[in-house]
Design a protein that fits this description.
This protein starts with a strand and ends in a 6-residue tail after the last helix. The chain has 244 residues and is of the alpha/beta class. It has one domain (4-238): P-loop containing nucleotide triphosphate hydrolases (Rossmann fold), CATH 3.40.50. The chain has 9 helices and 10 strands. The chain is globular and about 45 Å long. Strands 6-7-8-3-9-10 form a 6-stranded mixed sheet, sandwiched between helices. Helix 3 runs parallel beside helix 6 (147-161). Strand 9 and strand 10 form a beta hairpin.
């Protein structure tokens, strides 16, 4: 894909004892696309997300292959450098700074971009409209928010930091169905307004069928198939998830 924001080529992750967590994974995600990676627990989805975001080298694993964002090679770089290159990683857990308030979390995200005060004020108002609950919780420590509210705060931080790529792992895990719809709807809105590429990993295909413009399926550390266009809807319909 020539216009890809994210290009992953032959990325493998193995453990010192020889176990393979990810086997020569390759995928692409363009601006404005939401690429959903589905598969059962243990398929390698989280490993893939962490490999893209740079969170694996310190975990005594061997990582090989290429990860490019906007043409820049990021494989082997640390998470801070990868974040500066435009990658926002929202992990399954520890997605916000728990001891800081909601307002302080947002301020940290805002500082990542060199936006003038007038633009920053517009962004703040926009975040308040997207996530009104965060305005009510501004002075509350982020660690005391509900799971859904923490996801909303993480997405608000992503919006303010203006990334090229959002990598989000299991966004629906542990959330009530009504909260899942709110969170995933907010993700769709953030992706559309920023024209950002999104790589989303989730084992629940019912939740993600409304989002996916591109789909990858994982089994035992391998990406076994990919679908785009109408074939994405056909995949979900064939796996018990009604078409959009």
């Amino acid at each position: 894909m020539s216009d890809a924001v994210l290009e992953v080529r032959d990325v493998s992750v193995s453990y010192p004892g020889g176990g393979v967590a990810l086997d020569r994974a390759s995928l692409s995600v363009a601006a404005g696309e939401i690429a959903v990676v589905v598969g059962p627990n243990g398929a390698g989805k989280t490993t893939l997300c962490r490999a893209v975001a740079g969170y694996l080298p310190g975990e005594r694993v061997r990582v090989s292959g290429s990860v490019k964002v906007r043409g820049a090679e990021l494989a082997g770089k640390d998470p801070a450098n990868i974040a500066r290159a435009g990658v926002c990683f929202i992990p399954e857990r520890q997605k916000v700074f728990a001891t800081l308030t909601v307002a302080e979390n947002l301020e940290l995200a805002r500082r990542q971009t060199a936006r003038d005060p007038r633009s920053a004020a517009v962004d703040d108002e926009h975040v308040s409209r997207m996530f009104p609950i965060l305005r009510e919780r501004r002075t509350q420590p982020a660690g005391l928010l509900s799971g859904g509210e923490q996801q909303m705060l993480a997405l608000a931080r992503a919006f303010l930091s203006r990334p090229a790529l959002i990598v989000i792992d299991e966004p629906s895990l542990g959330l009530a169905p009504v909260v899942i719809q709110t969170v995933l709807g907010a993700l769709r809105q953030v992706a559309a307004e920023l024209n950002v590429a999104v790589l989303l990993a989730d084992q629940n295909i019912i939740n993600t069928r409304e989002l996916a413009t591109r789909l990858y399926e994982m089994r035992a550390g391998e990406l076994i198939q990919s679908q785009t266009g109408a074939a994405v809807g056909d995949y979900f319909a064939g796996h018990g998830a009604p078409a959009r």
